[in-house]
Each structure stands twice: as structure tokens, then as C-alpha cells.
Design brief:
This protein is α+β, with helices and mostly antiparallel strands. The protein has 22 helices and twelve strands. Helix 11 runs antiparallel to helix 13 and helix 18 packs antiparallel against helix 19.
């Protein structure tokens, strides 16, 4: 079972000393048989273990299949399934997982691809295919349960550690760290898989699979536990900052990354709580219809109460001046490389010679005159393909140098700022969408304008221009796809807007730009993706750990 093989074994612990310059006191001894009760018995040891639990177990170990971190392949699937990027290589099904079942070109000709997302996910969800590198369902589950289990290990030890200074503050800071990342892990599982497992004690196991909603509830529980500690369990700001400053690698304390104050962290929690609601409910916006109905889905539609809760949480969410949880590449001892450790890096470069190719459907979200367009993309070469990932665009490494304009990707060490958790842009765009859906159209548009200004887009403001709800939602959709790309959110958006569902069930994507293999640019293409909305449990878990009596299904029954 993944839990037992990868979590209880504490792979991250084995690599702490080589990766994060762990103190000699940690005394790992035999790297194949660590005895944490003996090795982790002081402050430096528990901090080192807490670092490895997140950055090695959670974000690096087991990710050498395509790229070299959680942010290259699991994040990559999100961008592939959202049609932000396409790929030609056969590794891990990246060349076929994002291909729609059919598309209709501007001349009304229908092109059937004879590729089914659901069929290929199911056909490759075997342990043998995992071993061969062809089971997409495996990777996110692997990382997030490794992260969760490693945090359980830290929590099982921390109360036995003697700390200097304000011991309670230091202990609670480490507990808050673990609770936050457990909340993050459960959010990732519950937002992607139809069911999951709740494992909250070190060394324990379970075959009681629960529905994704219960996994999200577990995420919310741990996020609230984090908030409770930050609000009432930190009495020494100096000791808190000292511990958190050690837990976050120094090379990540750059730009928007840094040592969060307790208030900043609380706002990050509120934004993630809002995300848990937003990305796991439907808010259909199909073919310009904000009242579209999806007749076959694994989740419910956002209610007015849901929108109001998102509004309340995001109002108290991440501010533009806040630090958030980010990652950077490093010259040595990092947890991902500059040229292969994230989706942006794998998309950067000439479109005929890179892993991921920027989709025409992504670029169409940037308006003419948007400085992000000129600063990040060129049309020097074309990549033509018979299916759906032909493109005129290549992404410029490090941007073209326009001051104050967001840069989408860089392969230079330390340059690219990877968002691991929530961001200001995400929070502001949740405020925008909630306001528009609740009838406060201009208030929502003002947040869209704010994000565009923050990223240096330089486009005309849309607030106060008399836009209708439909037009405002179009602006919202364009900006979420443009601003939040490569952050592991894109698929969730396409799913909740209804685009990934079969046209016969009310879904589909309309008005798309599409480059054919004959080099013809179409601008009004209809795409029928028909993707599985929430993934099955990977066979590496379900086969070795069969569901117990009363468990939730391990296969999505809606597909």
C-alpha cells in the first residue's frame, strides 16, 4: 500500500541530511532502517524532520518520471486537462490524456480523435502500468499521502522534544506547520479523487475509503486546527519566527515567499478554505450561459450560501502585501530543478523542442495590448499537429524584460516563483467571481482590474463600463486562466465551469482558437472533452488495500 510503503517508511527522513544540511545530532545511522525515536530527540532534529516531511516526502520523492517534483507532473496534469498545454511525448500519457473526444472546426467539420480520457485512465490504472510509468492516477496520490503520513510522524514525536526558549510556541509552530500541510494534502486528494482515506495517526492504516467530500472536510478540519494554534497558541513572536524561518528554506524566502506572520498565515488559511468550496462545486458557464445545467457530474452546484461563504473567507484572505508559501529552485540542495521541476519550465522555450507546448486556448485569454502577451510569448515558430495541440506560440525564457510585467516562466536558477499554496491573485479572483455571481458585478470587475494591474497587464479597466453579468463572467474566466496558470488549479476551473463534461450532458467548450495541422487558424471551435471529473483511486492503493465493508467506491460511478 502506498501509505505503508512510502509514508511509514519515511523516505523523506532518509534524505534529510544530504538535502537540507541536517545537524550531526540527527545521527541517521543505517539509512535503510531509521529509528526515529533515537534519532529525533532534540529541537534541531524535529525541525529537520519537519522540513523533509514537506519538501522531500511531499514534493520530491517519487517524482523522477517526468520532470523532478510534484510541481512538474501532478501540476502538469492539471494544465494538460485544462488545455493550457499539450504534449507529444508518450511518457505518463501526457500526449493523450488531454485530447478531447471530438472538436468541430469553424467550417462545421467534426473531427473525431478516437481517444477517450475515461477509457485510457481506466485501462492504465494497474500496478503494472504504474511500474511502466503509464498510470496518471498514481502520482498525486503518492505525494499527498506521503506528505500526510510524514506530518503524522512529526506530530507523533513533537510532544517529546525539549525546546529552548518558549517551548510551547516552538512546539505549536511545528504542529501548525504539520496541520497546515495535512490540510493541503487532504485538499489535493479530495479535489482530484472520487474517494480517499483519512489517516491521522502515525503507523496506522485503514481500508475505509470515504467520499471526496469527507476528505475535503478533513482538510478543513486541519486548516481550522492550524488557525486555532496561530490564534491562541503563539505567545512569543520571536520564537515563532525563528522556527518558521528554519522550516521554510532560505532560498524560498524571496519575493512573495517569506516568513509569514501569524496574521498572514491565517489569511492563507482563509483563502485555502475558500478554494476548497469553490473548486469542488459546479459553477457552470458553458457557451456564455451562467445558468447552464450539467446533468451528469460527481458534485453539486454552488448555492448562494456557498458564494457568500467564499466571499466572507476571501474578504479575510491573502492580501497583495502578504507572504505566501512558494518554492524556488536552488543551485544545490533544492527540491526541484530550474529546468525540469515545474510546468512553467517544461513549457519554456521553442515550441518545437520542449516537453509541454503552450495551447492556443491559453493565449486567447490575453487581450490585444496585454503586456503579458508581448513580454512572455513569441510566434517565431509553429508546432503543427493532427490532433489538438498545434500552436503558434513559444514561451520566452525569463520574459522579454518589460519592467513590472509578470513573467510566466524561467529556467534560470532561483528566478521562477512557484506558488505552492494560495496567492493574492487567486484570492482576488475568488472575490471577483463571488461578487459577480451574487449580483455585485462592478465590485467583482474591480478585483479583476486589480489583478491585471498587479501583474502589469496594462489593459483598460472593465469596472464601471456597464458590463452585463455574462460579459463580466467572460472577463473573470479569461483572467483566472491567464493569472493562475501553472499553479495546479486550471483543471479544477474547467471542470467546475462545466467545460470538461460531455456536450450531451450540458458541457463542452465553445469559441476556441485552434491551429490545425494544415496551419489554418480557427477562432470559433467547439470542443467536446468528456473527461472524468474526479479520478478513481490508483490501483497501487485499491488493489493492495481493498475497500472494507461500507467503504465509498474506489471508482467514480458517474463515468
Amino acid at each position: 500500500m502506498i501509505r505503508n510503503k512510502y509514508v511509514s517508511g519515511l523516505l523523506g527522513f532518509l534524505f534529510l541530511c544530504s538535502t537540507f544540511a541536517c545537524k550531526k545530532e540527527l545521527n541517521v545511522g543505517n539509512p535503510n532502517l531509521p529509528t526515529t525515536d533515537e534519532n529525533v530527540n532534540n529541537e534541531s532534529g524535529i525541525i529537520a524532520l519537519s522540513i523533509g516531511a514537506v519538501y522531500i516526502n511531499g514534493f520530491q520523492k517519487g517524482d523522477a518520471w517526468l520532470g523532478d517534483s510534484y510541481f512538474s507532473l501532478p501540476y502538469g496534469y492539471s494544465e494538460l486537462l485544462a488545455d493550457v498545454v499539450g504534449a507529444q511525448a508518450s511518457n505518463q500519457l501526457i500526449s493523450t490524456i488531454s485530447i478531447p473526444e471530438y472538436f468541430i472546426l469553424d467550417n462545421n467539420s467534426r473531427v473525431n480523435t478516437n481517444i477517450s480520457n475515461v477509457s485510457q485512465l481506466r485501462a492504465n490504472n494497474t500496478r503494472a502500468q504504474t511500474g511502466s510509468g503509464y498510470n496518471p492516477l498514481y502520482y498525486q496520490w503518492l505525494n499527498m499521502y506521503a506528505l500526510n503520513g510524514a506530518c503524522n510522524k512529526v506530530l507523533s514525536i513533537v510532544d517529546n522534544i525539549t525546546f529552548s526558549g518558549d517551548a510551547k510556541t516552538k512546539s505549536n509552530t511545528i504542529k501548525a506547520w504539520c496541520y497546515w500541510w495535512k490540510g493541503y494534502a487532504y485538499a489535493s486528494i479530495g479535489s482530484m479523487y472520487y474517494s480517499g482515506l483519512i489517516i491521522d495517526q502515525d503507523g496506522t492504516s485503514s481500508n475505509n475509503y470515504v467520499l471526496k467530500d469527507s476528505v475535503i472536510a478533513a482538510s478543513n478540519k486541519y486548516l481550522h486546527m492550524t488557525a486555532d494554534l496561530l490564534s491562541g497558541g503563539i505567545s512569543s513572536s520571536g520564537d515563532y519566527s525563528s522556527v518558521l524561518g528554519q522550516l521554510i528554506p532560505a532560498f524560498c524566502q524571496v519575493g512573495k515567499g517569506g516568513v509569514l506572520t501569524t496574521d498572514m498565515w491565517l489569511r492563507n488559511i482563509n483563502t485555502l478554505l475558500a478554494r476548497n468550496i469553490l473548486v469542488n462545486k459546479l459553477a457552470p458557464f458553458v457557451n456564455g450561459n451562467p445558468d447552464a445545467v450539467i446533468t451528469k457530474a460527481s458534485t453539486d452546484v454552488m448555492t448562494t450560501a456557498d458564494w457568500n461563504e467564499v466571499l466572507t473567507l476571501a474578504t479575510n484572505g491573502v492580501k497583495a502585501s502578504d507572504y505566501v508559501f512558494t518554492g524556488r529552485s536552488a543551485a544545490a540542495n533544492g527540491f526541484f530543478t530550474a529546468d525540469g521541476g515545474n510546468v512553467a519550465a517544461l513549457t519554456t522555450g521553442v515550441n518545437t523542442a520542449i516537453t509541454f507546448r503552450l495551447s492556443e486556448r491559453f493565449v486567447q485569454n490575453l487581450k490585444a495590448g496585454d503586456k503579458r502577451l508581448a513580454n512572455n510569448f513569441n510566434t517565431t515558430t509553429k508546432y503543427l499537429d493532427d490532433l489538438s495541440f498545434g500552436t503558434r506560440y513559444s514561451m520566452i525564457d525569463g520574459g522579454a524584460g518589460t519592467s513590472g510585467v509578470y513573467v510566466y516562466g524561467s529556467k534560470s536558477t532561483g528566478n521562477y516563483e512557484l506558488f505552492i499554496g494560495p496567492s493574492y491573485e487567486e484570492n482576488a479572483l475568488m472575490l471577483a467571481e463571488a461578487n459577480i455571481r451574487l449580483g455585485n458585478t462592478d465590485a467583482g470587475l474591480a478585483y479583476i482590474d486589480a489583478v491585471r494591474a498587479y501583474m502589469g497587464a496594462g489593459v483598460a479597466a472593465v469596472a464601471g463600463t456597464g458590463l452585463t453579468k455574462v460579459s463580466a463572467l467572460k472577463e473573470l474566466v479569461m483572467e483566472r486562466r491567464a493569472a493562475l496558470v501553472f499553479r495546479g488549479l486550471s483543471f479544477y476551473d474547467n471542470r467546475r465551469w462545466g467545460w470538461t463534461y460531455d456536450i450531451s450532458n450540458g458541457g463542452g467548450s465553445y469559441g476556441n482558437t485552434f491551429l490545425t495541422s494544415a496551419s489554418v487558424v480557427n477562432t470559433n471551435v467547439t470542443i467536446n472533452y468528456n473527461f472524468m471529473d474526479y479520478w478513481d483511486v490508483p490501483a497501487d492503493e485499491a488493489d493492495l488495500n481493498p475497500p472494507g465493508e461500507g467503504s465509498a467506491p474506489v471508482k467514480n460511478p458517474n463515468f
